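Handout, section 4.2: multi-component inputs.
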Amino acid sequence: MNETPDVNTKDALLAAAIEVFADKGFDAATVRDICGRAKANVAAVNYHFGGKDALYVAVLEEIFPKDEHPQIAKDPDLSPQERLHNYLSDLTSEIYERGNGMVTQRWAIFLREMAKPSQNLDFIVKRQVQPRTDELRNILTEILGPDVPGAVLAFSSSNIWALVLDHLLTQPIIDRLTPQRPSVRGNIDDFVDHIVKFSLGGLSAVKENT
Amino acid sequence: MNETPDVNTKDALLAAAIEVFADKGFDAATVRDICGRAKANVAAVNYHFGGKDALYVAVLEEIFPKDEHPQIAKDPDLSPQERLHNYLSDLTSEIYERGNGMVTQRWAIFLREMAKPSQNLDFIVKRQVQPRTDELRNILTEILGPDVPGAVLAFSSSNIWALVLDHLLTQPIIDRLTPQRPSVRGNIDDFVDHIVKFSLGGLSAVKENT
DNA sequence: AGTTTGTTCAAACAGTTGTTTGAATTTTTA
DNA sequence: TAAAAATTCAAACAACTGTTTGAACAAACT
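Output:
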């Protein structure tokens, strides 16, 4: 009757599902694995969530909360260059810095959805990507000026996102290619300084001759 | 003695496997689907290749041939900036231009392996990525000068790769975010010009203060 | 011819998947 | 306390997976 009969197993299932989905991906994840880690019965997923798909949706709702409004770099006192620095610093540290928390798992799931999009990618884009790209777009409009062609603005915005997301995707390749290369994690500041420099240089280059 | 009018079932299986693996990924691909498209019996994969895994290896050998040596931009008469332009132009058009051929399927499989690495990623990196990154590294060494720190060179190399690979990964997001944006395919030259400008600007920016 | 070798095929096998069942158990309600 | 509702659980289900089997067929060689 009450809506909080046994929160324990349901929460345990959700936590285990976040782990497994981030680690294996939706297809490779099995409900038996999830229930095993949650110390619950195999039928628990269907009882509490209604099925594997619904559990995945619940996971997405959990790790992409609605009320999250970053807009960190909106301080009007800062120059757009400084705001870009703050923007890239915050985004980078969120992706790479915190190792075992929920934040990195969220980006792992995001990466999986990009490589093999499902219907749920719409949800993730609306919750996670849309507000961040809007903010970047504002910063870039100030840097490039109001007369910049829309294509240049769109390309540049994608370029800067690509610089940040790069390691998320190419980490396994870098491990195989140049294992001696220092990892981003632990050198976040160096990495951020580099991509800020690279971005500002690239932006002024595409601004010059338009 | 060769080229019988009847289609070789082994070749048909290989062709169908390339399609299915590129479209669904290794896990989601089924041998029944592959054999169905090849109009072959379910047991044909095991008879001709020995199993699904061995078929995947055969597909990788097929779409990542050994004798492929790009080194297009090695002309010593060109400036490193021009060589970078040629390098990015060739790489971009190979990834995005030819729509239905084998080349794009190769990059689709590459993307899948990056998002969920398997043992075969070593093979792909050695065959596909290694020679191209070596070439880029040479170009960047000339542009940045011999005294550039190794970390800056490594970061910059990754950055430029990220600019090219960007759309491969974010295409499904862009479709959901800004559908009005002109696609890269069809505007390859504009895209290449943009990332060349952006790259050169970024490179001189990271070169300045080191 | 006959024999051998290579290839196809329908059927079945063994394993895993998500899901359902129905009875046992716990918790809540009256 | 007793009835009722909510939750757990072992077992089974149906569908799908890659793989194997053994007979049928085809081609090549002696």
